[in-house]
Write a structure and sequence with these properties.
317 residues, alpha/beta, Four Helix Bundle (Hemerythrin (Met), subunit A), Rossmann fold, 2 domains, 8-stranded mixed β-sheet, 50% helix, elongated
């Protein structure tokens, strides 16, 4: 099918296939059982399909949307064989992802602009936020960009130290202060340093505390406001990192953070160790925020630019 033409490198595609292997195997096994003994898509098959999608962490809202679309096709075509269901599901899920994820990027890119491009990274502790920042720094640097990191999660000494390890590993400068320092002050210093160095990309880590949403909101708002004293339209991107292996819990985290600040893109991590990869489809659809990056392995190269065509292809492998 030409719609799913190969636009990743062979190595990237193999990594993506391997990373989504558990999700794909689990989903297709369930789908096979849902249509066993049936020759056409009827009410029973649709009920079973609904169960398959919900149990694959696609989420109830998105599942109902997919079922409605398939029902509409059944009504239009009058007859739909179960042998066609895989292909139709694939098309409908790709269509849903297309509504939020308009591009088909395969490389790590940033818009061309005069000032450094500022990415503020948010997410709860333990989702792979610092690792994602380190891998992003590596990818941007490999693409020929100059990168500056800012350790504005000053609530935990471990977060600052972990980011320092990644900065050393990737060979990019890190702006940091002592634990307990004002996060906005760190962000301000980072942007000043980036402007002085004429850097291309700035990535700012922020605290992952969700116990008090009002405090989190106030802190992130202050960080933004102070950054704008250096670069008036910063941050250019607010990237929410979610742990894909937590399934429905990732939906809850997305809900909390989108309420606390304006999230503009998503990174979904740890997809390689789970059968819950369907969460990518549900979160992208439900929150209408593009998934920009996915983590499909532990290696430094295993953070990939999310490409909806290749994702759906691997999902239905």
């Amino acid at each position: 099918m030409s719609f799913f033409k190969k636009i990743f490198t062979k190595e990237k595609k193999e990594t993506l296939d391997k990373g989504l292997e558990k999700t794909s195997t689990s989903f297709l096994d369930k789908l096979g059982k849902a249509v066993a003994g049936k020759s056409k898509v009827d009410e029973d098959v649709l009920d079973n399909l609904e169960e398959v999608l919900v149990s694959s962490d696609v989420g109830v809202t998105t599942t109902l949307k997919v079922i409605d679309r398939i029902e509409a096709r059944v009504a239009k075509d009058k007859y739909l064989g179960t042998d066609e269901l895989n292909k139709i599901l694939r098309e409908e899920i790709a269509g849903l992802l297309s509504e939020t994820n308009s591009g088909n990027a395969t490389e790590f890119e940033i818009p061309k602009q005069d000032a450094p491009y500022v990415i503020m990274v948010v997410g709860v502790n333990g989702v792979g936020k610092t690792t994602t920042i380190g891998k992003l720094a590596h990818q941007f640097k490999s693409a020929g960009k100059t990168v500056v990191l800012g350790a504005a999660d000053t609530f935990r000494a471990a977060a600052i130290d972990q980011l320092q390890i990644w900065a050393d590993r990737t060979g990019v400068p890190l702006v940091r202060q002592e634990m307990g320092s004002d996060p906005a002050s760190v962000a301000f210093d980072t942007l000043e340093s980036a402007v002085t160095k004429n850097a291309d990309v700035v990535i700012i880590d922020t605290a992952g505390r969700l116990h008090n949403k009002v405090n989190l909101m106030n802190e992130l708002t202050k960080v933004k406001r102070v950054m704008q004293k250096v670069i008036p339209d910063a941050p250019h991107e607010v990237l929410l990192v979610l742990d894909g292996s937590t399934g429905q819990n990732a939906f809850e985290q997305a809900k909390q953070f989108t309420a606390a600040t304006e999230v503009t893109s998503l990174a979904v991590t740890k997809l390689d160790g789970t059968a819950k990869g369907g969460v990518v489809i549900g979160i992208s659809d439900q929150f209408q925020i593009p998934v920009k990056y996915i983590g499909v392995g532990e290696g430094i190269e295993d953070l990939q630019v999310f490409n909806k065509i290749e994702f759906v292809d691997s999902f239905f492998k």
